[in-house]
Write a structure and sequence with these properties.
The complex is a heterotrimer of chains A (about 240), B (about 260) and C (about 290). Chain A has about 240 residues and is of the alpha/beta class. Chain A contains seven helices and nine strands. With about 260 residues, chain B is α/β, with parallel strands linked by helices. Classes of the chains: A alpha/beta (about 240), B alpha/beta (about 260), C alpha/beta (about 290). At the A-B interface, strand 1 and helix 2 of A face helix 6, strand 10, helix 8 and helix 9 of B.
Chain lengths: ~240, ~260, ~290
């Protein structure tokens, strides 16, 4: 792995075998590779269903990587997500790599402010500081203070997504994965989120993003990776 | 605060096998558990998960294989080879065991305060006021009203008994908890509350835990890592979200697809 | 060995049995407070009448010993009289009611008030030797608890007492820790007597005939009553003094004197009371005053 990069994806492929459905095998892509340096903001592009979310999830360790390597610089060392002990990946997710998915996984009895604070607390940030960050982000994302003590379970899709984003940005990561961060947001909030991403990028965070919104993509990304070239054609 | 350090594993099991005549309990199971991690073991009835848990927690001796535990001062010892006295002390201080049925883990005719204080008295605490205060403190942490401190567990609901069992176990701040279907037999709303409590305690205390459950929702809620067992063997293991979102083994896929989605 | 009345061996038991009991006693003395199993023999009195104590005494008594037997502090109850006569007949030993003159004192339920000496042996009659028995009925479990020094449960009982009654409610057979190791039942003596067991110059032997156990507390051994730092062990006290001798620091028995609610408090240890009266001490109901 080259000294300056934070992420090095090498020749990875992905397929799914559905045992419950007669062992059907779905090949998604093959031969995917790229590197990412601090301050890079890479857009994953390609038509819907091509495997952009799948690729992101593989980098996060949420999906298995059957071949190739996914190297993340963690604590100065390159760690291969594809073969690392789960214990290591948990540490990488805590300190080095953040992920904002499309959907907030809601636990009905945890208050919004606690949901947002949790990743920062896991990094060892003091409670007062974590809370302060959470409050700033929630305010920026226009979640009314009256809702901070409530669980997000009753929030609208857009509100949940903003809570999700606040949670993603409350902790500081060298590498961030953002899956459709501006989907289901109105124009004001979209602007805010774009500013937040840009600020993180300017601070040296490396970002991979999936953006449906071409405008957003143009505003923050300085690189592009089109997955179409690597998709495996259906047999 | 969760700090997944690079230190050696808290618990390491190697090749655990336990057979009952011609019935396989568990077959050649190995695992590593690090401080602060929760490992879920899922499988259907007869998968061997409870047998495995008993072998790991020294309630049962495996036919082959070793279980090593790293003590507080850093030394690693074989759990089954250590002397009776040392093992029993370990089970009372560093370890916790939460039974599915709280009656198996409580003294039903000793008051709630006495139940929670017992471990403290067993390790030499001799100040009644302090013991009682600590017991009251823990009852509060598990959301049992402090005015129930002198009541007997027979007067508690199932959910309260289970929470009392948890308090009784955690009062000595163990580093490793074994839980066998901790929410089994409880109403759904009670289960949810208990899971939240466990998640909070695990996080606050930096507790490592091995949780056996047949309920994948419980596993998703509590565990960082997941092991799927079938007929005594481990068929898949990995991060919880990975095993549930991208199961590889046919049996894992079957289990995951069987969860009813709201 | 001269001919004994009725053809019995000296002190009733055959020599082999005495050796077996002495071995058990030696083991007991070597591990203070530990209950040593022994092959308890059939004695000519039923269980519950002191067969354990009698076997211990029979195993250690010699021709030159002077035996005192008390029951609830008194030398003249049925029990004390029978046992004293038993040894007088089968061992032809001298007997006495005076604590200070005795070399062996067999007792049920009390320790004499007079301080004991190095040349004396106390033999206690014990019904249930296992202090944990009422909390844990399984013998297998209690043996393990003693072996592993797991006595948390004993303190749980004391905790429950305080939680329920505001104080530790046990007043007799109050559990003690011997030599910092074994938790032991001092026999059903009142807790008032527990302090006398601590650092006692006399050898203390305990015999349980029905349960087949012998245990011992060697001279000058530490004996601590279990308690909590903030609920320390306390002995009973009375507002009254002995009506006969005026003693204010002995264990008093309450005696009903008439059917109109009249009562008096007297020393439970009859020998000690007599000694005090002989020395000139009086109480509010001394015979001189009553007559």
């Amino acid at each position: 792995m080259n000294g300056g990069s934070i992420l090095d994806v090498r020749d990875i492929a992905k397929d799914f075998t559905l045992h419950a459905q007669g062992g059907t095998r779905l090949a998604v892509f093959a031969g995917v590779g790229f590197t990412l340096a601090p301050g890079d903001c890479l857009a994953l592009s390609g038509p819907s269903g091509i495997g952009k979310s799948t690729l992101m999830r593989m980098i996060y360790g949420n999906f298995r990587c059957p071949s190739g390597e996914i190297l993340v610089r963690h604590g100065g060392e390159p760690i291969d997500i594809a073969s690392a002990h789960p214990h290591r990946i948990l540490d990488i997710r805590r300190a080095t790599m953040g992920y904002v998915s499309q959907f907030l996984r809601v636990i009905p009895r945890v208050a919004t402010i606690d949901v947002v604070m949790e990743p920062a607390l896991a990094q060892g940030i003091a409670v007062a500081e974590a809370r302060a960050r959470a409050e700033v982000l929630l305010a920026q994302l226009r979640i009314p203070e009256s809702l901070w003590g409530l669980s997000p379970v009753t929030f609208s899709g857009g509100e949940q997504q903003r809570v999700n984003l606040a949670r993603g940005f409350a902790a500081r990561y060298p590498l961030m994965l953002l899956d459709e961060p501006t989907a289901s947001l109105d124009s004001d909030n979209r602007e805010t989120v774009i500013d937040m991403i840009r600020a993180a990028r300017d601070h040296g965070t490396a970002i991979i993003g999936i953006f449906h919104d071409a405008d957003a993509r143009a505003n923050v990304c300085n690189r592009d990776f089109n997955l179409s070239a690597y998709a495996v054609k259906a047999a | 605060m969760n700090a997944f350090s690079d230190a050696k594993p808290l618990l390491r099991a190697n090749g655990i096998t336990k057979v009952f005549g011609h019935i396989t309990g568990c077959d050649d199971v190995s695992l590593d558990l690090y401080a602060g991690e929760v490992l879920g073991i899922v499988g259907e009835s007869g998968s061997g998960k409870s047998t495995l848990l008993r072998c790991l927690s020294a309630a049962m001796t495996p036919d082959t294989g070793t279980v090593s535990y790293t003590l507080r001062h850093g030394e690693t010892k074989d759990v089954h080879a250590m002397g009776d006295a040392e093992r029993r002390m370990l089970m009372r201080t560093d370890w916790a065991f939460v039974h599915q049925n709280p009656r198996d883990g409580l003294r039903m005719h000793v008051s709630a305060g006495g139940n929670v204080g017992e471990r403290l008295m067993a390790v030499g605490e001799r100040h009644y006021g302090d013991i009682r205060a600590a017991a009251g403190d823990w009852l509060d942490k598990v959301e049992i009203a402090e005015n129930r401190i002198d009541d007997l567990p027979v007067t508690f609901s199932g959910g309260m008994q289970q929470r009392l069992q948890i308090a009784r176990n955690l009062v000595t701040r163990p580093r490793l908890a074994f839980m066998d279907e901790p929410t089994g037999g409880l109403d759904v709303s009670v289960q949810a509350r208990l899971l939240d409590l466990l998640r909070g305690l695990v996080s606050d205390l930096g507790l490592a835990a091995i949780v056996v459950t047949h309920d994948l929702a419980v596993a998703r809620h509590l565990s960082h890592r997941l092991m799927v067992m079938k007929q005594g063997r481990v068929v898949e293991t990995g991060l919880t979200d990975q095993v549930l979102d991208d199961p590889q083994h046919p049996y894992s896929q079957l289990l995951v697809s069987s969860i009813l989605r709201a | 060995m001269s001919a004994q009345p009725g053809g019995y061996n000296f002190a009733y038991l055959d020599e082999q049995t005495k050796r077996m009991i002495r071995r058990a006693i030696l083991k007991a003395v070597a591990v203070p407070g530990y209950q040593v199993p022994f092959a308890s023999r059939e004695m000519p009195m039923p269980y519950g009448w002191g067969t354990g104590g009698v076997q211990v005494t029979a195993a250690i008594i010699t021709r030159t010993d002077v035996l005192k037997v008390i029951d609830q502090g008194s030398d003249d109850t049925t029990n004390a009289v029978s046992i004293r006569k038993f040894f007088a007949r089968t061992a032809d030993v001298a007997t006495t009611e005076r604590t200070t003159e005795a070399s062996i004192i067999q007792t049920r339920h009390r320790i004499p008030e007079s301080p004991l000496r190095r040349d004396q042996i106390m033999v206690y009659q014990v019904p249930i030797p296992e202090p944990l028995r009422f909390l844990e009925p399984r013998e297998t479990e209690t043996r393990r608890m003693h072996a592993l020094e797991e006595y948390g449960l004993m303190h749980v009982k004391l905790y429950e007492d305080i939680a329920r009654h505001g104080h530790i409610a046990t007043t007799y057979a109050y559990p003690v820790k011997v030599n910092g190791r074994y938790v032991t039942d001092p026999s059903p003596t009142p807790k008032f007597d527990n302090p006398k067991m601590d650092n006692c110059p006399a050898l203390q032997l305990f015999g349980a005939g029905r349960e087949k156990r012998i245990y011992a507390i060697p001279p000058y051994t530490r004996v601590e009553s279990l308690d909590f730092e903030d609920h320390p062990f306390e002995v009973q006290s009375w507002e009254e003094s002995c009506a006969l001798c005026g003693a204010g620091d002995t264990f008093l028995d309450e005696v009903i004197t008439d059917d109109r609610g009249g009562r008096m408090f007297v020393c439970s240890d009859s020998d000690y009371c007599r000694e005090r009266r002989d020395a000139g001490h009086t109480g509010v109901q001394s015979p001189e005053a009553a007559e």
